[in-house]
Every structure is written in structure tokens, then in C-alpha cells.
Amino acid sequence: MPRPIEATIHLPALRHNLSVARQAVPDARVWAVLKADAYGHGVQRVFDAVRAADGLAVLDLSEAQTLRSLGWRGPVLLLEGVFEPRDLEWCSRLDLWHVVHHEAQIDWLAQHKTHQGHHVYLKLNSGMNRLGFKPDGFRTAWARLQALSQVDQISLMTHFSDADGPKGVAAQMDVYQSATEGLPAAHCVANSAAILRHAAQRGLPADWVRLGIALYGSAPDAPARSASAWGLQPTMSLRSQLLAIQHLEVGETVGYGSTFQAPSAMRVGVVACGYADGYPRHAGTEVGAPVLVQGVRTRTVGRVSMDMLTVDLTPVETAGHSPAVGDEVVLWGQGRDGAQLPVDEVAQAAGTIAYELMCALAPRVSVRVQALD
Ligand SMILES: *Cc1c(COP(=O)(O)O)cnc(C)c1O
Q1: What residue spans in the chain does CATH classification 3.20.20.10 cover?
Q2: Fewest CB atoms within 10 A around its CB: which of 125, 160, 259, 278?
Q3: How far is the CA of 266 from the centre of ligand 1 (A)?
Q4: Does 2.40.37.10 match the CATH number of domain 236-370?
């Protein structure tokens, strides 16, 4: 028997979350963002669910190639555009839309030989200061692209730094509106947080939106609001089992560094999951990260090690169960009985965000796919 840890990717939940986004922006076309191997879920695994999107957005040419080989004929967008002139050959061959965020990408396009007019996404740096043209260079870039025979369509985009927080999108939208005013183009500004929190309320221009983390069932503004409050369902479950049970006498410790000391006699469960499976080593350094054992919520105790972590079994016993080797442990997502443990809560206990946890699912964990109904 292989180690009993397993991840499950829930395609019905992905479908559902896509429809939640569609309800928030009913007139927009939706890019399902599949970068980072679909936020750790696997591009190929999620494909059946995300083909209900209007377009698929990726970072790497290899991801775009995968999508075409899976038979996707719809739009594919390269979110950082091309990295060298040769990449444009692939854009022509596979009909990929690509972001243009710096001058060199326009130079490469100007020298690219093609009969296929490209659809480009011209990116404005409206204040995040990662990628994009500053407002004063934006119209010049637009005019250069407009004059190229290699370019067939130009859409406009920007990316928000604070759509999930108190600062919001107002200041960046002011910059965007004045930089793009009068340019005849489709607009694509919203990420998940902006789709759920700002698109309808502020009337953001949304010919297209870019749906990432909410597709994967995590609340973009956790912990302020939970995924279930947004109507989102978990798309990845990480489940394992109890490998062993230890009785601790009062004062005994568990794990490396002896960081947890039993305040009274108690039992701890040893779980087949560690940081080499993608579980965050810093989860629960202070008070313990949440875990479900037999559907009962408890917490980690002691340090997370490479292949194992340990949990307090007291709440499980209090709930009337007698824990045993082989019992189901849910690290995040949902259990077989439907009990849920939001990945956002585990992320918070580890001082990080759900994006990082899902992207870090380790290759050694076997993955099962819950197919569409
Ligand atoms: C990753 C990414 C997104 C998706 O962001 P979420 O917060 O996951 O919705 C949108 N736009 C760009 C440019 C991105 O890189």
C-alpha cells in the first residue's frame, strides 16, 4: 500500500466556482487563470471543468501547448507575454494572445514575420509597479502596436495591488481611466478579488475578467470573509490517515525541538503528512493549525516534520470517537463525510495564503480527480 496521503481535485467545485464568478460579472467574458499548473491542481486535471470558461490564461508556452494538445480551440492568453522573439513563432502557430508590457516586446513583434494578426493585451502599470507601461508611455505604445501589420487587435489591461484589501482599486482605476480614455479597445482589469468585491459595485470595465484564486475555492480577501460566505466550494482536498497513536504523560513532549509539552496526560495522533508533501512547516507554530480527524476539528501540536505531523486527539475523544490507526485526517478541503476545513484557515495558521499552499502540493502526493457529474 502506498503512503495513505492523497489529494483530490473536485471538478464539480471548479465548475461551481466559475459560475459564482459569472454571477458577479454576468456581462464579462471570463479567463480561467491556469498559471502555476492551475494553482497546483494540474492543468490537465482541471481541463474538463475549466473548458466552460471563455478563455484560458497561462504564463508558460508549455502550458499553452498543453491546452492546444488537449484540444482547446478557444482563446489562450500569455499573462506575461513572450520572453524572447522566438516565442512569437509559437504565438502565431498556436494562435495565442499575449500581453505586451515593455518596449522590447513591441520591437520583437515589429520584426516578427507572420501572416497571422496577433491579439495583444497592452498592459498599463497603474501603480502596482511590477509589469506594464507607465501612463505617460502608454499611448505611444498603443500607437506603435496599432501601426504594426503583425497586430490585429489590441485589448487593454492592468492589475490591481489592493483589490483584496482596504485600499481597494479606486486610485488605480483613476489612473487607468485617464490613461485609456478614448482608446477603442476591450478592457480587462479584474482579478478574483476585484470580480467579487468591486466589479459590480464600482462598475469596473469588464469585457473580460481574470479569475484565479476564487476559481480554486479560496476567498480572495480571507480571513476578512470566508470562501463559503462568497459561495465558493473547495476544489482541492488533502487527506491522509493516522499512522500511529502516542500516549503522552503530563510533561512529555512530541517531535523535533520538543516544542509541545503535554499539559496533562493525552493522546496524540501521528499523521502521514509533512512538509515534503507540501504541508507548511510553519503551520501552527503558535497555537496549532486546524486539522480534522474523523471529521472532528482539532489542531497540530509540535513541529511539522518532513513526512509526519502530530495532532491533539483530545477533541476527537471528547466528540465520542475512539481514534485508531487508519482514521481519516483532512489537512484541508473536505472529508469523505463532507466535513470541511477551509484551506484559507490552514494558510492563516501558517502565516501565508491559500495560493501558496495549493501551489506547493508536492509531486510525491498522488492525486485523484472527482469528475464532473
Ligand atoms: C495570477 C493573476 C491573476 C489572477 O489573480 P487571482 O488573485 O488569483 O484572481 C490575474 N491577473 C494576472 C495578471 C495574474 O498574474
Answers
A1: 11-218
A2: 259
A3: 45
A4: yes
Q: Where in the chain is the domain with CATH 2.40.37.10?
A: 236-370
Distance CA 79, CA 75 (A): 12
Give the pLDDT score at 285.
76
190, 27 Cβ separation under 8 angstroms: no
Q: In CATH, what class is 11-218?
A: alpha beta
Amino acid at 81: G
Distance 344 CA to ligand 1 centre (A): 17
Distance 271 CA to ligand 1 centre (A): 34
| pLDDT < 70 regions, the chain | none
Beta strands 76-78 and 6-10, pairing class = unpaired
Q: Best substitution site from 33, 130, 198, 355 to test ligand 1's pocket, by max atoms within 8 Å of Cβ?
A: 33
pTM of the shown model: 0.96
Pocket-forming residues, ligand 1, beta carbon under 6 Å: 33, 35, 79, 159, 191-193, 210-213, 220
